[in-house]
Amino acid sequence: MKFATLRSHPDQPTCVALVDEHTQRYWPLSDLIPDFTGDMNQLVQEWGRLKQKIVPQGDGQPLDQARVEAPIHPQRNMFCVGKNYFEHAAEFSNSGFDSSTSADDVVPKHPIIFTKAYTTLIADGDEIPRHAAVTEQLDYEAEFAIIIGKGGRGIRKDQAFDHVWGYTVANDVTARDLQKKHKQWHLAKSLDGLCPMGPWITTADEIDPSNAGIKCWVNGELRQDSNIGQLIFDIPTLIETISAGIELKPGDVIITGTPVGVGIGFNPPKFLQTGDVVRVEVEGMGAIENRVGQ
């Protein structure tokens, strides 16, 4: 199943809805489950109680008449993974922007985990702020994100998928000059509006994350074209690593890393400019498209 956070009218509050991607119709969960009045976090938290009650009734409503919002607003910063594809690790090391690399660790030996502020989240179709007064080197990163369902600490690899509720598409937009200048990644990743996400969340039972294509286009030019199965550190490894000493909670978001083809990988680099349109697509999960604003 696919679930989106929608707004049927600018004056109306958001609602969580079941979405049929193929027919482009949706059903508000409050219509299917009268006692459900919450957001995506509540759906995740109460999934065991609610999932059997979610059955489409009638023809639904046309998706193109609703505004799609960012699918989930986590209660804390998102967990992100750096240099998690072999070719991207090499391009980042060779770019001159990577202050975390020494000669013997171009490919990380352990997952590189950092956080991205939840205030960066914007929806499919929203403008990515240019932040021209802060950065001259804005870059795109096609990624897919894990939505945690069942929380826990000390989760073993062989139990990791029991804790995954779903997946979604993300663009981990990054200010490269800030990343290099400050020698850490949080500030460069956390400027307001630098995380387009959506358009919806696909439940884990619909997706095989070991074999799903991931692509990114900028102004129609294919820049990134890879497969999630090529992650250096797979989903169980990431969940085991993060949860070893940090309790994961329902609704937590883990953004898993980007493949080769980001702007700094070109010579000269291809940074984002006002008016550029970035499209990120993950097979089976949908696509997001965002224009860079002023």
Give a description of the structure.
With 294 residues, the protein is an alpha+beta fold. Helices cover 15% and strands 30% of the residues. The chain is built from 7 helices and 18 strands. The protein has helices at residues 29-32, 40-45, 47-50, 86-95, 176-182, 186-189, 235-243, and strands at residues 2-7, 15-20, 25-28, 61-62, 67-68, 78-82, 112-116, 121-123, 138-139, 142-148, 164-171, 174-175, 195-203, 213-218, 221-227, 253-255, 277-282, 286-291. The strands form 3 sheets. Strands 1, 2, 3, 4, 5, 6, 7, 8, 10, 11, 13 and 16 form a 12-stranded mixed β-sheet that branches. It has a 4-stranded antiparallel β-sheet with strand order 15-14-17-18, with no helix packed on it. The longest helix has 10 residues, at 86-95.
User: Largest sheet, described in full?
Assistant: 12 strands, mixed
Overall form: globular
Based on secondary structure, the structural category is alpha+beta
Helix content: 10-25%
Number of helices: 7
Return the average pLDDT rounded to an integer.
Answer: 94
Query: First CA to last CA: what distance?
Result: 36 Å
Model regions low in confidence, pLDDT < 50 over at least 5 residues: none
Q: How large is the share of residues in beta strands? A: 25-35%
Number of strands: 18
Radius of gyration: 19 Å
Could you spell the SSE succession in H and E letters?
EEEHHHEEEHEEEEEEHHEEEHEEE
